[in-house]
Each structure stands twice: as structure tokens, then as C-alpha cells.
Amino acid sequence: xATLSPADLxxxxxxxxxxxxxxxxxxxxxxxxxxxxxxxxxLAGTSKSDAEPEERAHHFSVYASLLHATQRGKRINLLDLPxxxxxxxxxxxCMPAAETMLLVLDPATGIDSTSRWxxxxxxxxxxxxxxxVSHIGxxxxxxxxxxxxxxxxxxxxxxxxxxxxxxxxGVIGCLLNRDGESDLGPVEGFHTKxxxxxxxxxxTLMERYLEGEEPNYDALHPPFERxxxxxxxxxxxxxxxxxxxGVEALLDIIVxxxxxxxxxxxxxxxxxxxxxxxxxxYESDSDKPLLARVFHVTSDAYLGKICFVRxxxxxxxxxxxxFIGDGGKPVRVSHLLRMQGLERTEExxxxxxxxxxxxxxxxxxxxxxxxxxxxxxxxxxxxxxxPKPLHGLAVVPKTRSDEDKVADVLARIREEDPTFDAHxxxxxxxxxxxxxxxxxxxxxxxxxxxxxxxxxTKPPKIAYxxxxxxxxxxxxxxxxQSGGAGQFGEVMLRVEPLERGAGxxxxxxxxxxxxxxxxxxxxxxxxxxxxxxxxxxGYPIEDVRVTIYDGKTHAVDSxxxxxxxxxxxxxxxxxxxxxxxxxxxIVELDVVTPHDSVGAVTxxxxxxxxxxxxxxxxxxxxxxxxxxxxxxxxxxxEPTLKNMTRGRGSFTMELSHxxxxxxxxxxxxxxxxxxx
Length: 676
Description:
By secondary structure, the chain is an alpha+beta fold. The chain is built from 16 helices and 37 strands.
């Protein structure tokens, strides 16, 4: 496939909640652009995007998928993103690859919690947004209330660029056209509002417009693109992917009005030099030194690791030797791919502004910055705001041979999913996985089992913490004699609480050399070891300052192992005197529910030790509720919310803070720990 100029590329994200119609829209765009001879169907399992076994079994996207279509000589790179809250990490990781996020919304369900979360992240990263209203073929009677909800949520910048007609059987443009009727009223009023918002960014154009001159496409494109970049205009497009209504119009809108790589807001990079950080702005020029970034990782049985990349400047060529970040040794890139879902074609090069994939380079990982010039060694991408995985599950392989296979699969999933974690818990001897939701973890288990590996699971583990609430002193003398050289170390220390989230401080206040400085790292190592293991209930200890103030040594028998042991048990002695507490994770919950379910939802949250601190009713008849509650009370929340709201409720969740657990919770966990 020919390498195009950056100005002839459009990189867009298809984002939104599960079942909003993103993948069906992607299939319709491919079909209308002539990329496929038949439109794929999610339910029939024939879509280009949802090609993995887990996706076809459940009929929704689990993994990000890269597609492409050509319209009017421009190439559109489409990233179809998962919409379930548990898979939002993949949506976030793909954001730096695009200039525009197309937020697909179903007017029947309104703006759900996942869509609000995505909007919040896009705005924080200066990523322009367009709203795609789906399913208009089912009728347009609910659209006035939905448009009011859009204005409430996104502000007055949310303006239609086209409008539905004939009760959703067609669309009519309103940026370059003022004539005609739509299902929402006369076109002229929408045309005037949109034009007013665009031309006010260009003084010369505004003056001519006020004099009665109607601007044409060439005059409108620069201020329209600027309006999108600045969030001054959020275009709204109407479609129905199943009937094809508005799909051709959307293709034209993307290539004619949405920003290309040179026009879009630059994705953030910075340079670290001498401890100072300053912005680095790339140029969308294929002749400049290469700068690219890995934004998604997947694997294939034949090709191994496949890393999706965005080229920001320069040209990535097959056979090139590239540097990864500030690493000294370059790696050779032999296989470049153009992706169409699971279909791949070999490419010789990927130019500035374009998206593609690199195969068979194991040294590459998610987020890596690639370049071919050592002058770019200190260029780094800005960190992304991934939510912390809070849901836990213990995984037990059925046989010894399954253990290695499970470890291999989990390692690959960790490579691909920035919000998934897996580790071996030394205290319990369990393999523990963490994700963003029960669904997230259930699909990980399904993926393991789909590969013929037999595993069992145990109830979710909650990431409790331990801490202390008072000052105390501890002492331990470690003395061991076994015929030869002995072991001796004596430590006296003080512990005191720090503010929540402060972590750990280790302070050496020993005077007179009673404990040589060389033994301090061993003491700290022993303290950190027992803090990782936990004492009260077997959970990590946080927010503690440990001060070593006295001790004793032996000229012959004092060794690092002796002081490591003494430090460990001196800390235990002090900790048990310092009024220890158990901290439980408290989550921030955003719930979107129909107005008639607010009472039931509020009562259920109260029964889970939750506190609803804000509630807002929208014009569309739904309510946005904000609450805080313990993570331990969230185990069955998703199905319960669906039942209470007849399938119309949704929520997102992220860690808020840790707080002291109630006495009965602490006592139960301490008793459970002692029984192990």
C-alpha cells in the first residue's frame, strides 16, 4: 500500500460503551468505503474487529482492533476500542495514536458512565471529540431529550454537523447548507449556530460573515479544525450502521473536516535532560528523524508478539535498526504490517502520521518510544492515566504442567493489558490476578481455558493494607551460636504513623557508632520484608516512619543476616504496641441510572456501607450519582445494578483512598489470617 502524505491521513478512535454500536459502525464504514464486499456482523461472528474467541462468544469487543478505509483519496485509520469498563485500559493506551475520538452514543441509553469517563480523559489530554449518534433508524422521537442531555454533559460546544431526516431514514448536512427540514427542526437554525461558533475563531472570516458573505469549504476548514482542537466545537453526526444511513456522510466528514496529523493537537512528549523536563514537539514530516511509539501489543501463534505503532515523524522502514527509548543497543525491525483486524499485509515502510504494526521484536513493550537518532535518546512519552486494578482473584492450576502454561499466558496478558496484574503471593502461596472488574477477570480465566489449560479460582482477594495509629518502641536481640561463628545483632527502633499515602520512611538516628553504618541496609531490608508480609492480617504495611536509635554489635559475630533478623522482629515488637489498624480500599463510584431507579440504587448503596454524596438528574430522565464505598462491597454490584435498572444502569469505578476498616471486618480478617 502506498505511503501517503501526513495531510492525507486521518486517525480516529471509535469509543463508547458496550453495545453502543461501535463495531457495527466500523463494519459499515469498511463496507461503504469498499474495503469489504459484505458488511460484517457482530452477532454472526463475521466482523473484522471482534475476531478473537472471547469476542465472538460474548458479542462485544474485548481487545482494541486496527482497521483502515480509503475515502476520497484519504486513508482513515480506525481504532475500534472495547467499551466495557473493565477494558478501558486499552482505550486509554490507544489515545496517543489518534487525532480525534469518535464517541459513539445510543440515544436510547444516553450518556453512560463509561462514555463520561472517556470524555474526561480525552479532555484532559486535549484530544478532540466528535459525537456519533447511532441507531437513528429505530426512530428519532427520543432525540430532542438526548440532545439536551448532550448539551448538559458536554456544554454548548456540542453542535450537529448533520441532522436526521425522514424519521431516521436519511441525513442532511448543516455546516455548508442552510436549507431544508430535519427531524429536529429547520436546518437553518442549526446551520447558524454552528457557523457562528466556527467563524468567531477567525477575525477576517467573522467580519466577512457579518457583512452577509456565506463562507465556503476552503474558508471554513482551518477555523473548523481549530475549533475541534480547542474543544470550541464538538461535532455531532447521526448514523444508523445497520441501514447504512449517515455512514457515507460520516466518511466524508472525517476526511473533509476532522484534523489530519499535521493539523491535530500534538500528542505530548518531553525531554529529560540534567534533571529538567521540557516539552518536545515533533514535526509530521516523513523526512525528519524517526519518532514512533508502541500503543498496543497483541500476540499471534505464527508471528509471535505484534506491536502496534504510531509514527509521529520520520519514516519507519523494514530492515531499519532502531533505538528503544534511551537504550544503547539498537534492534532490527524486519516485519512491518498493515492491519485490517486479524488480516495483515506486509509493508516496506510506514510514514509520518500513519499507524501500523511491528512483528517478531520481543524487546518491544507497550509505551516504548522508538527512534533512529541518538539525539532523541531523552525523548519520552507522557504517562497515561491508567486506573488501578482493584478486583482480585486467586488462580489455582489443576496440574503441575498447567502451572508453567498459566504463567506464560498471564505474562502475555500483562504485556497486552496495562490494567491487568498477576503475582505470586508468598504469604498465602497463591497466584493472584488483579483487574478492573469481575468481567475483566472472568475473561482472563476464559482466555486461559480456551488454550486448554485447566484452572480453578477462589473468591476475589481485596487489596487491604495495614498501618499503625500510635507511636511505639521495639527491641530485638538476635543471638545464635552453632559451634562455629555465631550471629549477633541487637536493634532498638521507634515507629510512628505517617499521613495516608505517604508510604515508608527509614531514619538512622544512631549515635556513637553502636551500630555501624554498614549494617543499616540490612536492618532496613528486614523491616521492609516484614512490612511486605504484614503482621496483623497478612497484608502489606504502609504509611510508617521507622527510626533506628540504638543497638549493639559483637566484634566477631555481628553479620548482615543477624541485623536483618533483628530489624525484622524489632519492628514486629513495636508494631503490635502501636495500635495497628486494617485499611480497606474505598472506591469512587459514578452510577448512571434511570430516574425511576434512583431510590432502589441509593438503598442498595447504603446497604453496602456506601455514601451517596451527589446526585444530578438530566433532561433525558436519567440520574448521575456519585458515591464512595468499600471495594469489598462491590463483588456482585454489576448484576445487581442491571437487575434494579432493567439493564439500563451503568457504572465506573476507580480507587479513591484507603480508610480504617470497621472493627468487625478487621477481627474477621485477623481470625482468618491466624487460621492459615
